[in-house]
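Progress narrative, work stream C.
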Amino acid sequence: MTPNPFRGVVFHWLGGLASGSFYVPYKGVKKWSWEVYWLVGGFFSWIIAPWVLAFINTKDLAQVISAAPMSSLCWAYFWGAMWGLGGLTFGLTMRYLGMSLGMGIALGYCAAFGTLVPPIFHGDFVSKVLCTTSGQVILIGVLVCLLGIAVAGMAGMSKEREMTEEQKRATIKEFNFAKGILVATFSGVMSASFAYGLDAASPIAEISRAHGTEGLWTGLPKLCVVLLGGFTSNFIWCVLLNLKKKTGYQYFKSEIRSEHLEQAPPPRTTADDAGAGGVVQVLAVVSRARAVERAPMLNNYFFSALAGTTWYMQFFFYTMGETQMGNYKFSSWTLHMASIIIFSSLWGIALREWKGCSGFTKTLLAMGLFMLVFSTVIVGFGNYLAVK
Protein backbone atom coordinates (compact mmCIF):
# COMPACT_ATOMS: atom_id res chain seq x y z
CA MET A 1 0.00 0.00 0.00
CA THR A 2 1.49 3.35 -1.07
CA PRO A 3 1.42 5.94 1.74
CA ASN A 4 -0.95 8.86 1.20
CA PRO A 5 -0.10 11.60 3.75
CA PHE A 6 -3.09 13.78 2.97
CA ARG A 7 -5.43 10.85 3.48
CA GLY A 8 -3.54 10.27 6.72
CA VAL A 9 -4.26 13.87 7.77
CA VAL A 10 -7.98 13.26 7.24
CA PHE A 11 -7.82 10.13 9.41
CA HIS A 12 -6.06 12.10 12.13
CA TRP A 13 -8.72 14.79 11.94
CA LEU A 14 -11.38 12.12 12.44
CA GLY A 15 -9.41 10.81 15.41
CA GLY A 16 -9.15 14.32 16.81
CA LEU A 17 -12.91 14.77 16.41
CA ALA A 18 -13.50 11.57 18.39
CA SER A 19 -11.07 12.53 21.14
CA GLY A 20 -12.29 16.11 21.35
CA SER A 21 -15.86 14.87 21.65
CA PHE A 22 -15.63 11.87 23.95
CA TYR A 23 -16.18 13.76 27.22
CA VAL A 24 -19.46 15.26 26.03
CA PRO A 25 -21.57 12.08 26.58
CA TYR A 26 -20.35 11.95 30.18
CA LYS A 27 -22.43 15.08 30.78
CA GLY A 28 -25.47 12.83 30.39
CA VAL A 29 -24.43 10.67 33.35
CA LYS A 30 -26.38 11.58 36.47
CA LYS A 31 -25.72 10.90 40.16
CA TRP A 32 -22.76 8.55 39.61
CA SER A 33 -19.40 9.30 41.17
CA TRP A 34 -16.56 10.13 38.79
CA GLU A 35 -14.66 6.89 39.39
CA VAL A 36 -17.77 4.85 38.59
CA TYR A 37 -18.59 6.34 35.20
CA TRP A 38 -14.88 6.63 34.31
CA LEU A 39 -14.32 2.89 34.84
CA VAL A 40 -17.56 1.88 33.08
CA GLY A 41 -16.57 3.98 30.08
CA GLY A 42 -13.04 2.62 30.35
CA PHE A 43 -14.20 -0.97 29.86
CA PHE A 44 -15.45 0.06 26.45
CA SER A 45 -12.41 2.25 25.72
CA TRP A 46 -9.65 -0.15 26.73
CA ILE A 47 -11.12 -3.66 26.51
CA ILE A 48 -14.33 -4.10 24.52
CA ALA A 49 -13.88 -1.75 21.54
CA PRO A 50 -10.16 -2.52 20.87
CA TRP A 51 -10.57 -6.29 20.85
CA VAL A 52 -13.89 -6.34 18.97
CA LEU A 53 -12.72 -4.03 16.18
CA ALA A 54 -9.30 -5.69 15.93
CA PHE A 55 -10.98 -9.11 15.72
CA ILE A 56 -13.27 -7.90 12.93
CA ASN A 57 -10.66 -6.06 10.84
CA THR A 58 -7.47 -8.13 11.26
CA LYS A 59 -6.35 -11.69 10.67
CA ASP A 60 -5.50 -14.21 13.40
CA LEU A 61 -5.53 -11.69 16.23
CA ALA A 62 -4.70 -14.12 19.04
CA GLN A 63 -1.92 -15.82 17.06
CA VAL A 64 -0.42 -12.46 16.08
CA ILE A 65 -0.19 -11.25 19.66
CA SER A 66 1.14 -14.58 20.94
CA ALA A 67 3.84 -14.55 18.23
CA ALA A 68 5.06 -11.05 19.13
CA PRO A 69 8.43 -10.69 20.90
CA MET A 70 8.06 -10.68 24.67
CA SER A 71 10.10 -7.49 24.94
CA SER A 72 7.72 -5.72 22.57
CA LEU A 73 4.68 -6.91 24.51
CA CYS A 74 6.15 -5.93 27.88
CA TRP A 75 7.24 -2.45 26.81
CA ALA A 76 3.96 -1.78 25.01
CA TYR A 77 2.06 -2.86 28.15
CA PHE A 78 4.35 -0.84 30.44
CA TRP A 79 4.05 2.38 28.47
CA GLY A 80 0.31 1.80 28.24
CA ALA A 81 0.16 1.60 32.03
CA MET A 82 2.19 4.82 32.32
CA TRP A 83 -0.13 6.46 29.83
CA GLY A 84 -3.03 5.24 31.96
CA LEU A 85 -1.82 7.42 34.83
CA GLY A 86 -1.91 10.40 32.51
CA GLY A 87 -5.26 9.32 31.10
CA LEU A 88 -7.07 9.14 34.41
CA THR A 89 -5.71 12.54 35.47
CA PHE A 90 -6.79 13.83 32.05
CA GLY A 91 -10.36 13.35 33.21
CA LEU A 92 -9.57 15.42 36.30
CA THR A 93 -8.10 18.10 34.03
CA MET A 94 -11.46 18.41 32.28
CA ARG A 95 -13.20 18.72 35.65
CA TYR A 96 -10.94 21.51 36.93
CA LEU A 97 -10.21 23.51 33.75
CA GLY A 98 -12.92 22.65 31.22
CA MET A 99 -12.49 21.24 27.73
CA SER A 100 -10.86 24.22 26.03
CA LEU A 101 -8.20 25.22 28.55
CA GLY A 102 -7.68 21.72 29.98
CA MET A 103 -7.01 20.04 26.67
CA GLY A 104 -4.88 22.93 25.42
CA ILE A 105 -2.42 22.73 28.31
CA ALA A 106 -2.30 18.96 28.77
CA LEU A 107 -1.98 18.24 25.07
CA GLY A 108 0.75 20.85 24.66
CA TYR A 109 3.06 18.79 26.86
CA CYS A 110 1.80 15.58 25.28
CA ALA A 111 2.48 16.80 21.73
CA ALA A 112 6.04 17.88 22.48
CA PHE A 113 7.12 14.73 24.30
CA GLY A 114 5.17 12.23 22.19
CA THR A 115 6.36 13.63 18.86
CA LEU A 116 10.05 14.20 19.48
CA VAL A 117 11.09 11.47 21.93
CA PRO A 118 10.60 8.38 19.65
CA PRO A 119 12.89 9.57 16.78
CA ILE A 120 15.46 10.81 19.31
CA PHE A 121 15.36 7.44 21.09
CA HIS A 122 15.90 5.56 17.83
CA GLY A 123 18.72 7.89 16.77
CA ASP A 124 16.78 9.00 13.67
CA PHE A 125 16.21 12.62 14.62
CA VAL A 126 19.31 13.99 12.90
CA SER A 127 19.41 11.72 9.84
CA LYS A 128 15.66 11.63 9.07
CA VAL A 129 14.52 14.98 10.39
CA LEU A 130 17.27 17.59 10.47
CA CYS A 131 19.13 16.43 7.37
CA THR A 132 16.24 16.02 4.91
CA THR A 133 13.96 18.58 3.29
CA SER A 134 10.83 16.61 4.13
CA GLY A 135 11.98 16.18 7.73
CA GLN A 136 12.68 19.90 8.06
CA VAL A 137 9.22 20.76 6.73
CA ILE A 138 7.66 18.33 9.20
CA LEU A 139 9.69 19.86 12.04
CA ILE A 140 8.42 23.31 11.05
CA GLY A 141 4.88 21.92 11.20
CA VAL A 142 5.57 20.51 14.67
CA LEU A 143 6.88 23.89 15.85
CA VAL A 144 3.84 25.68 14.40
CA CYS A 145 1.64 23.17 16.22
CA LEU A 146 3.40 23.82 19.54
CA LEU A 147 3.14 27.57 18.96
CA GLY A 148 -0.56 27.19 18.22
CA ILE A 149 -1.01 25.22 21.43
CA ALA A 150 0.79 27.99 23.32
CA VAL A 151 -1.49 30.65 21.81
CA ALA A 152 -4.57 28.56 22.66
CA GLY A 153 -3.21 28.24 26.20
CA MET A 154 -2.76 32.02 26.37
CA ALA A 155 -6.38 32.40 25.33
CA GLY A 156 -7.39 30.06 28.13
CA MET A 157 -5.37 32.00 30.71
CA SER A 158 -6.81 35.28 29.43
CA LYS A 159 -10.28 33.80 29.81
CA GLU A 160 -9.46 32.74 33.35
CA ARG A 161 -8.39 36.29 34.28
CA GLU A 162 -11.47 37.92 32.77
CA MET A 163 -14.20 35.70 34.17
CA THR A 164 -15.56 35.96 37.69
CA GLU A 165 -15.64 32.89 39.91
CA GLU A 166 -19.40 32.72 39.42
CA GLN A 167 -19.03 32.73 35.62
CA LYS A 168 -16.36 30.02 35.74
CA ARG A 169 -18.40 27.75 37.92
CA ALA A 170 -21.52 28.34 35.84
CA THR A 171 -19.84 26.50 32.96
CA ILE A 172 -17.27 24.39 34.88
CA LYS A 173 -18.72 23.47 38.27
CA GLU A 174 -15.42 22.38 39.83
CA PHE A 175 -13.19 25.06 38.27
CA ASN A 176 -9.83 25.31 40.08
CA PHE A 177 -7.05 26.93 38.06
CA ALA A 178 -4.10 26.14 40.36
CA LYS A 179 -5.05 22.51 40.92
CA GLY A 180 -5.96 22.13 37.24
CA ILE A 181 -2.55 23.36 36.02
CA LEU A 182 -0.71 20.83 38.19
CA VAL A 183 -2.94 17.98 37.07
CA ALA A 184 -2.74 19.04 33.40
CA THR A 185 1.07 19.12 33.50
CA PHE A 186 1.32 15.64 34.99
CA SER A 187 -1.36 14.35 32.63
CA GLY A 188 0.31 15.77 29.52
CA VAL A 189 3.79 14.42 30.26
CA MET A 190 2.52 10.96 31.20
CA SER A 191 0.01 10.78 28.33
CA ALA A 192 2.89 11.00 25.86
CA SER A 193 3.73 7.46 26.96
CA PHE A 194 1.06 6.24 24.55
CA ALA A 195 3.28 7.24 21.64
CA TYR A 196 6.14 5.26 23.19
CA GLY A 197 3.86 2.25 23.62
CA LEU A 198 2.77 2.31 19.98
CA ASP A 199 6.40 2.61 18.93
CA ALA A 200 7.38 -0.36 21.09
CA ALA A 201 4.49 -2.38 19.62
CA SER A 202 5.64 -1.89 16.00
CA PRO A 203 6.68 -5.58 15.61
CA ILE A 204 3.08 -6.59 16.34
CA ALA A 205 1.90 -4.61 13.31
CA GLU A 206 4.48 -6.29 11.10
CA ILE A 207 3.43 -9.75 12.29
CA SER A 208 -0.21 -8.86 11.62
CA ARG A 209 0.73 -7.79 8.11
CA ALA A 210 2.54 -11.11 7.59
CA HIS A 211 -0.68 -12.93 8.59
CA GLY A 212 -2.54 -11.22 5.75
CA THR A 213 -4.02 -8.15 7.45
CA GLU A 214 -4.53 -5.20 5.10
CA GLY A 215 -1.99 -2.46 5.78
CA LEU A 216 -4.60 0.06 6.87
CA TRP A 217 -5.61 -2.12 9.84
CA THR A 218 -2.23 -3.42 11.02
CA GLY A 219 -2.09 -0.94 13.91
CA LEU A 220 -5.23 -2.29 15.61
CA PRO A 221 -3.52 -5.26 17.34
CA LYS A 222 -1.00 -2.83 18.84
CA LEU A 223 -3.85 -1.01 20.55
CA CYS A 224 -5.04 -4.20 22.26
CA VAL A 225 -1.74 -4.48 24.15
CA VAL A 226 -1.10 -0.80 24.88
CA LEU A 227 -4.66 -0.21 26.08
CA LEU A 228 -4.53 -3.29 28.30
CA GLY A 229 -1.75 -1.52 30.19
CA GLY A 230 -3.87 1.63 30.34
CA PHE A 231 -6.81 -0.36 31.64
CA THR A 232 -4.69 -1.82 34.44
CA SER A 233 -3.65 1.50 35.97
CA ASN A 234 -7.10 3.03 35.57
CA PHE A 235 -8.81 -0.04 37.01
CA ILE A 236 -6.60 -0.07 40.10
CA TRP A 237 -7.10 3.64 40.73
CA CYS A 238 -10.87 3.56 40.26
CA VAL A 239 -11.29 0.52 42.50
CA LEU A 240 -9.20 2.21 45.20
CA LEU A 241 -11.49 5.23 44.97
CA ASN A 242 -14.52 2.93 45.11
CA LEU A 243 -13.20 1.44 48.34
CA LYS A 244 -12.18 4.76 49.86
CA LYS A 245 -15.43 6.56 49.03
CA LYS A 246 -17.62 3.44 49.27
CA THR A 247 -19.13 4.04 45.83
CA GLY A 248 -18.79 0.51 44.42
CA TYR A 249 -22.49 -0.19 44.94
CA GLN A 250 -23.33 2.35 42.22
CA TYR A 251 -22.38 -0.16 39.51
CA PHE A 252 -25.29 -2.39 40.53
CA LYS A 253 -27.84 -0.38 42.51
CA SER A 254 -29.80 2.65 41.36
CA GLU A 255 -30.51 3.96 44.86
CA ILE A 256 -27.93 6.59 45.79
CA ARG A 257 -26.89 6.83 49.42
CA SER A 258 -27.37 10.17 51.08
CA GLU A 259 -23.63 10.77 51.58
CA HIS A 260 -23.11 10.58 47.80
CA LEU A 261 -25.86 12.98 46.79
CA GLU A 262 -24.89 16.43 45.56
CA GLN A 263 -25.14 18.81 48.45
CA ALA A 264 -28.03 21.21 48.04
CA PRO A 265 -29.40 23.79 50.50
CA PRO A 266 -32.59 22.76 52.28
CA PRO A 267 -35.81 24.47 51.21
CA ARG A 268 -36.29 27.88 52.76
CA THR A 269 -38.79 27.95 55.57
CA THR A 270 -39.26 29.89 58.77
CA ALA A 271 -40.95 29.46 62.11
CA ASP A 272 -43.47 32.03 60.96
CA ASP A 273 -44.39 29.81 57.99
CA ALA A 274 -44.73 26.48 59.75
CA GLY A 275 -43.63 26.73 63.33
CA ALA A 276 -40.76 24.76 64.86
CA GLY A 277 -42.57 21.47 64.45
CA GLY A 278 -43.31 22.27 60.80
CA VAL A 279 -39.63 22.86 60.14
CA VAL A 280 -38.77 19.44 61.56
CA GLN A 281 -41.45 17.79 59.43
CA VAL A 282 -40.28 19.54 56.27
CA LEU A 283 -36.67 18.51 56.89
CA ALA A 284 -37.78 14.94 57.60
CA VAL A 285 -39.67 14.81 54.29
CA VAL A 286 -36.65 16.22 52.46
CA SER A 287 -34.40 13.66 54.17
CA ARG A 288 -36.63 10.76 53.16
CA ALA A 289 -36.93 12.06 49.59
CA ARG A 290 -33.16 12.36 49.22
CA ALA A 291 -32.59 8.94 50.79
CA VAL A 292 -34.47 7.23 47.94
CA GLU A 293 -33.00 9.29 45.11
CA ARG A 294 -32.05 7.01 42.23
CA ALA A 295 -29.55 7.08 39.41
CA PRO A 296 -30.85 6.43 35.87
CA MET A 297 -28.90 3.20 35.45
CA LEU A 298 -29.72 2.48 31.79
CA ASN A 299 -28.94 6.02 30.72
CA ASN A 300 -25.73 6.10 32.74
CA TYR A 301 -24.44 2.87 31.25
CA PHE A 302 -25.44 4.01 27.77
CA PHE A 303 -23.73 7.40 27.98
CA SER A 304 -20.64 5.92 29.63
CA ALA A 305 -20.40 3.26 26.91
CA LEU A 306 -20.89 5.92 24.24
CA ALA A 307 -18.17 8.09 25.76
CA GLY A 308 -15.79 5.15 26.08
CA THR A 309 -16.33 3.92 22.53
CA THR A 310 -15.99 7.45 21.17
CA TRP A 311 -12.72 7.82 23.05
CA TYR A 312 -11.35 4.61 21.50
CA MET A 313 -12.21 5.77 18.00
CA GLN A 314 -9.49 8.41 18.22
CA PHE A 315 -6.84 5.67 18.14
CA PHE A 316 -8.79 3.56 15.70
CA PHE A 317 -8.37 6.42 13.23
CA TYR A 318 -4.90 7.24 14.55
CA THR A 319 -3.49 3.86 13.59
CA MET A 320 -5.09 4.22 10.16
CA GLY A 321 -3.52 7.64 9.71
CA GLU A 322 -0.15 6.38 10.92
CA THR A 323 -0.02 3.82 8.11
CA GLN A 324 -0.24 6.68 5.59
CA MET A 325 2.69 8.74 6.88
CA GLY A 326 5.54 6.69 5.40
CA ASN A 327 8.92 6.99 7.16
CA TYR A 328 7.73 9.85 9.35
CA LYS A 329 5.22 8.06 11.53
CA PHE A 330 6.34 10.10 14.53
CA SER A 331 4.62 13.14 12.95
CA SER A 332 1.28 11.39 13.46
CA TRP A 333 1.40 12.37 17.12
CA THR A 334 1.55 16.07 16.26
CA LEU A 335 -1.37 15.73 13.85
CA HIS A 336 -3.35 13.87 16.48
CA MET A 337 -2.72 16.44 19.22
CA ALA A 338 -3.49 19.38 16.93
CA SER A 339 -6.74 17.79 15.78
CA ILE A 340 -7.83 17.09 19.35
CA ILE A 341 -7.31 20.68 20.43
CA ILE A 342 -9.12 22.01 17.37
CA PHE A 343 -12.25 19.97 18.00
CA SER A 344 -12.18 20.25 21.80
CA SER A 345 -11.96 24.04 21.46
CA LEU A 346 -14.94 24.01 19.10
CA TRP A 347 -16.86 21.95 21.66
CA GLY A 348 -15.84 24.43 24.34
CA ILE A 349 -17.30 27.22 22.21
CA ALA A 350 -20.49 25.24 21.58
CA LEU A 351 -20.87 24.56 25.32
CA ARG A 352 -20.48 28.31 25.99
CA GLU A 353 -17.28 27.94 28.01
CA TRP A 354 -16.03 31.15 26.36
CA LYS A 355 -19.17 33.16 27.06
CA GLY A 356 -18.35 36.55 28.55
CA CYS A 357 -14.77 36.66 27.25
CA SER A 358 -13.35 39.78 25.62
CA GLY A 359 -12.75 40.17 21.90
CA PHE A 360 -9.00 39.95 22.58
CA THR A 361 -9.36 36.52 24.19
CA LYS A 362 -11.56 35.23 21.40
CA THR A 363 -9.06 36.54 18.84
CA LEU A 364 -6.28 34.64 20.59
CA LEU A 365 -8.36 31.47 20.48
CA ALA A 366 -9.09 31.96 16.77
CA MET A 367 -5.38 32.52 16.06
CA GLY A 368 -4.45 29.39 18.00
CA LEU A 369 -6.99 27.27 16.12
CA PHE A 370 -5.82 28.65 12.76
CA MET A 371 -2.20 27.83 13.58
CA LEU A 372 -3.16 24.31 14.63
CA VAL A 373 -5.07 23.69 11.39
CA PHE A 374 -2.19 25.16 9.38
CA SER A 375 0.32 22.95 11.22
CA THR A 376 -1.53 19.81 10.10
CA VAL A 377 -1.29 20.99 6.49
CA ILE A 378 2.46 21.62 6.85
CA VAL A 379 3.09 18.22 8.41
CA GLY A 380 1.01 16.55 5.70
CA PHE A 381 2.98 18.34 2.99
CA GLY A 382 6.28 17.31 4.58
CA ASN A 383 5.22 13.68 4.50
CA TYR A 384 4.09 14.12 0.90
CA LEU A 385 7.59 15.30 -0.04
CA ALA A 386 9.02 12.16 1.55
CA VAL A 387 6.88 9.75 -0.49
CA LYS A 388 6.76 11.80 -3.71
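Work stream C, second folded protein:
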Amino acid sequence: MVARPPVRITVEMMKVDDLAEVQVIERESFATPWPPHAYRQELENNRLAHYVVARCGDAIVGFAGIWLLVDEAHVTTFATRRSWRRQGIGERLILALLDLARTRGAHEATLEVRPSNIPARRLYEKYGFKVVGVRPRYYSDDNEDALIMTTESLDGRHMRDRIAQLRAELAARPDVEIGPDGLPVGRPGSTGDDAEPDGSGDSGAPGGSVGSEPREPRVIRPSSVMRRTR
Protein backbone atom coordinates (compact mmCIF):
# COMPACT_ATOMS: atom_id res chain seq x y z
CA MET A 1 0.00 0.00 0.00
CA VAL A 2 1.14 3.54 -0.73
CA ALA A 3 0.61 6.70 1.28
CA ARG A 4 -2.40 8.79 0.38
CA PRO A 5 -2.03 12.34 -0.94
CA PRO A 6 -1.69 15.02 1.78
CA VAL A 7 -4.93 16.68 2.85
CA ARG A 8 -5.73 20.20 3.96
CA ILE A 9 -7.51 20.83 7.25
CA THR A 10 -10.64 22.96 6.86
CA VAL A 11 -13.04 24.36 9.45
CA GLU A 12 -16.74 24.93 8.86
CA MET A 13 -19.95 25.34 10.80
CA MET A 14 -21.31 22.16 12.40
CA LYS A 15 -24.45 20.68 10.85
CA VAL A 16 -26.93 18.11 12.13
CA ASP A 17 -25.55 15.62 9.60
CA ASP A 18 -22.16 15.89 11.36
CA LEU A 19 -23.44 14.74 14.74
CA ALA A 20 -22.72 11.01 14.37
CA GLU A 21 -19.01 11.72 13.82
CA VAL A 22 -19.00 14.42 16.49
CA GLN A 23 -20.39 11.93 18.99
CA VAL A 24 -17.55 9.51 18.24
CA ILE A 25 -15.02 12.21 19.14
CA GLU A 26 -17.09 13.21 22.18
CA ARG A 27 -17.04 9.66 23.59
CA GLU A 28 -13.33 9.29 22.86
CA SER A 29 -12.40 12.63 24.41
CA PHE A 30 -14.50 13.02 27.57
CA ALA A 31 -14.91 10.83 30.62
CA THR A 32 -18.52 11.99 30.93
CA PRO A 33 -19.65 12.75 27.37
CA TRP A 34 -22.68 14.85 26.52
CA PRO A 35 -25.66 12.67 25.48
CA PRO A 36 -26.38 12.22 21.76
CA HIS A 37 -29.37 14.57 21.74
CA ALA A 38 -27.47 17.44 23.35
CA TYR A 39 -25.72 18.78 20.27
CA ARG A 40 -28.87 18.53 18.18
CA GLN A 41 -30.67 20.64 20.76
CA GLU A 42 -27.81 23.12 20.75
CA LEU A 43 -27.84 23.42 16.96
CA GLU A 44 -31.59 23.59 16.55
CA ASN A 45 -32.83 25.40 19.64
CA ASN A 46 -30.06 27.46 21.26
CA ARG A 47 -29.63 30.77 19.48
CA LEU A 48 -26.59 31.53 21.68
CA ALA A 49 -24.69 28.43 20.55
CA HIS A 50 -22.31 28.25 17.59
CA TYR A 51 -20.31 25.11 16.78
CA VAL A 52 -17.62 24.32 14.22
CA VAL A 53 -16.01 21.13 12.95
CA ALA A 54 -12.55 20.51 11.54
CA ARG A 55 -12.27 18.23 8.51
CA CYS A 56 -9.36 16.42 6.97
CA GLY A 57 -10.69 15.22 3.67
CA ASP A 58 -14.10 13.72 4.38
CA ALA A 59 -13.44 12.93 8.04
CA ILE A 60 -14.42 15.14 10.96
CA VAL A 61 -11.37 15.18 13.23
CA GLY A 62 -12.26 17.86 15.75
CA PHE A 63 -14.96 20.23 16.90
CA ALA A 64 -15.46 23.21 19.17
CA GLY A 65 -18.20 25.57 20.25
CA ILE A 66 -18.95 28.93 21.81
CA TRP A 67 -21.88 30.71 23.35
CA LEU A 68 -22.23 34.36 22.40
CA LEU A 69 -23.59 36.25 25.40
CA VAL A 70 -23.92 40.00 24.92
CA ASP A 71 -20.31 41.04 24.19
CA GLU A 72 -18.56 37.93 25.50
CA ALA A 73 -17.84 34.63 23.76
CA HIS A 74 -17.64 31.59 26.04
CA VAL A 75 -15.91 28.48 24.77
CA THR A 76 -18.27 25.62 25.64
CA THR A 77 -16.41 22.58 24.36
CA PHE A 78 -13.27 21.66 22.45
CA ALA A 79 -12.03 18.26 21.29
CA THR A 80 -9.74 16.68 18.71
CA ARG A 81 -9.55 13.02 17.75
CA ARG A 82 -6.70 11.39 19.62
CA SER A 83 -5.14 9.96 16.47
CA TRP A 84 -5.20 13.39 14.78
CA ARG A 85 -3.68 15.51 17.52
CA ARG A 86 -0.53 17.58 16.94
CA GLN A 87 -1.55 18.30 13.38
CA GLY A 88 -2.57 21.92 13.98
CA ILE A 89 -6.26 21.04 14.23
CA GLY A 90 -6.69 22.55 17.68
CA GLU A 91 -5.12 25.79 16.50
CA ARG A 92 -7.46 26.04 13.54
CA LEU A 93 -10.44 25.40 15.76
CA ILE A 94 -9.52 28.06 18.30
CA LEU A 95 -8.75 30.52 15.51
CA ALA A 96 -12.16 29.82 13.95
CA LEU A 97 -13.87 30.44 17.30
CA LEU A 98 -12.07 33.75 17.79
CA ASP A 99 -12.95 34.83 14.25
CA LEU A 100 -16.57 33.90 14.83
CA ALA A 101 -16.65 35.72 18.15
CA ARG A 102 -15.25 38.90 16.67
CA THR A 103 -17.54 38.94 13.63
CA ARG A 104 -20.55 38.45 15.91
CA GLY A 105 -19.59 41.43 18.05
CA ALA A 106 -17.90 39.81 21.06
CA HIS A 107 -15.24 41.95 22.72
CA GLU A 108 -13.48 39.09 24.51
CA ALA A 109 -13.45 35.29 24.76
CA THR A 110 -13.49 33.27 27.97
CA LEU A 111 -13.12 29.60 28.91
CA GLU A 112 -12.40 27.26 31.81
CA VAL A 113 -9.54 24.76 31.82
CA ARG A 114 -8.11 22.30 34.30
CA PRO A 115 -4.83 23.43 35.93
CA SER A 116 -3.51 19.93 35.19
CA ASN A 117 -4.22 20.15 31.46
CA ILE A 118 -0.92 21.71 30.44
CA PRO A 119 -1.26 21.12 26.65
CA ALA A 120 -4.62 22.92 26.60
CA ARG A 121 -3.30 25.79 28.67
CA ARG A 122 -0.34 26.24 26.33
CA LEU A 123 -2.64 26.31 23.32
CA TYR A 124 -4.98 28.86 24.89
CA GLU A 125 -2.08 31.03 26.07
CA LYS A 126 -0.63 30.98 22.57
CA TYR A 127 -3.90 32.46 21.30
CA GLY A 128 -4.04 35.23 23.86
CA PHE A 129 -5.95 33.73 26.79
CA LYS A 130 -4.67 34.68 30.25
CA VAL A 131 -5.62 33.31 33.67
CA VAL A 132 -7.91 35.79 35.46
CA GLY A 133 -9.41 33.65 38.23
CA VAL A 134 -10.26 30.22 39.63
CA ARG A 135 -13.54 28.33 40.02
CA PRO A 136 -13.09 26.00 43.03
CA ARG A 137 -14.10 22.35 42.51
CA TYR A 138 -15.55 23.17 39.07
CA TYR A 139 -15.18 19.73 37.49
CA SER A 140 -17.79 17.32 38.76
CA ASP A 141 -15.90 14.09 38.01
CA ASP A 142 -13.02 14.75 40.43
CA ASN A 143 -13.70 18.20 41.94
CA GLU A 144 -10.62 19.69 40.31
CA ASP A 145 -10.57 23.48 40.20
CA ALA A 146 -10.90 25.34 36.91
CA LEU A 147 -8.76 28.21 35.77
CA ILE A 148 -10.74 31.03 34.16
CA MET A 149 -8.89 32.25 31.07
CA THR A 150 -9.89 35.36 29.14
CA THR A 151 -8.50 37.24 26.17
CA GLU A 152 -7.88 40.95 26.05
CA SER A 153 -10.06 42.92 23.63
CA LEU A 154 -10.52 41.02 20.38
CA ASP A 155 -10.60 44.38 18.59
CA GLY A 156 -7.42 45.63 20.25
CA ARG A 157 -4.26 46.13 18.19
CA HIS A 158 -2.22 43.66 20.22
CA MET A 159 -4.76 40.84 19.85
CA ARG A 160 -5.34 41.55 16.16
CA ASP A 161 -1.60 41.47 15.47
CA ARG A 162 -1.20 38.21 17.43
CA ILE A 163 -4.02 36.53 15.51
CA ALA A 164 -2.72 37.77 12.15
CA GLN A 165 0.72 36.34 12.87
CA LEU A 166 -0.67 32.98 14.03
CA ARG A 167 -3.00 32.82 11.03
CA ALA A 168 -0.04 33.32 8.70
CA GLU A 169 1.95 30.61 10.46
CA LEU A 170 -0.97 28.18 10.13
CA ALA A 171 -1.38 29.00 6.44
CA ALA A 172 2.30 28.21 5.88
CA ARG A 173 2.06 24.76 7.44
CA PRO A 174 2.16 21.86 4.96
CA ASP A 175 -0.88 19.73 4.35
CA VAL A 176 -1.29 16.70 6.60
CA GLU A 177 0.54 13.65 5.28
CA ILE A 178 -1.70 10.58 5.44
CA GLY A 179 -0.35 7.06 5.79
CA PRO A 180 -1.72 3.83 4.26
CA ASP A 181 -3.93 3.39 7.35
CA GLY A 182 -5.70 6.67 6.64
CA LEU A 183 -4.19 8.37 9.70
CA PRO A 184 -1.59 11.15 9.92
CA VAL A 185 2.03 10.22 9.58
CA GLY A 186 3.93 10.99 12.78
CA ARG A 187 0.77 11.11 14.94
CA PRO A 188 0.71 11.38 18.79
CA GLY A 189 3.89 11.00 20.65
CA SER A 190 5.38 14.04 18.95
CA THR A 191 5.99 17.22 20.91
CA GLY A 192 5.87 20.90 20.09
CA ASP A 193 3.98 24.13 20.45
CA ASP A 194 0.94 22.71 18.67
CA ALA A 195 0.17 20.25 21.47
CA GLU A 196 -3.58 20.01 21.97
CA PRO A 197 -6.04 19.42 24.82
CA ASP A 198 -6.14 15.89 26.14
CA GLY A 199 -9.92 15.68 26.32
CA SER A 200 -10.71 15.21 29.99
CA GLY A 201 -13.91 17.05 30.83
CA ASP A 202 -16.66 17.43 33.40
CA SER A 203 -20.23 16.20 33.27
CA GLY A 204 -21.87 19.32 31.88
CA ALA A 205 -24.49 18.73 29.23
CA PRO A 206 -26.06 21.34 26.96
CA GLY A 207 -29.80 21.21 27.16
CA GLY A 208 -29.70 18.84 30.12
CA SER A 209 -29.13 18.78 33.85
CA VAL A 210 -26.32 16.28 34.27
CA GLY A 211 -24.02 16.95 37.20
CA SER A 212 -23.87 19.97 39.43
CA GLU A 213 -24.22 23.49 38.05
CA PRO A 214 -20.76 25.07 37.53
CA ARG A 215 -20.02 28.22 39.50
CA GLU A 216 -20.10 31.14 37.08
CA PRO A 217 -20.26 34.41 39.02
CA ARG A 218 -19.32 36.62 36.07
CA VAL A 219 -22.09 35.56 33.68
CA ILE A 220 -25.86 35.14 33.82
CA ARG A 221 -27.00 32.52 31.32
CA PRO A 222 -29.77 29.91 30.92
CA SER A 223 -29.42 27.60 33.91
CA SER A 224 -30.52 24.52 31.95
CA VAL A 225 -27.37 24.48 29.86
CA MET A 226 -23.93 23.67 31.20
CA ARG A 227 -20.71 24.38 29.39
CA ARG A 228 -17.59 22.35 29.55
CA THR A 229 -14.00 22.88 28.56
CA ARG A 230 -10.96 21.07 29.84
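The chain has one domain: 4-178. No further action is required on this item.
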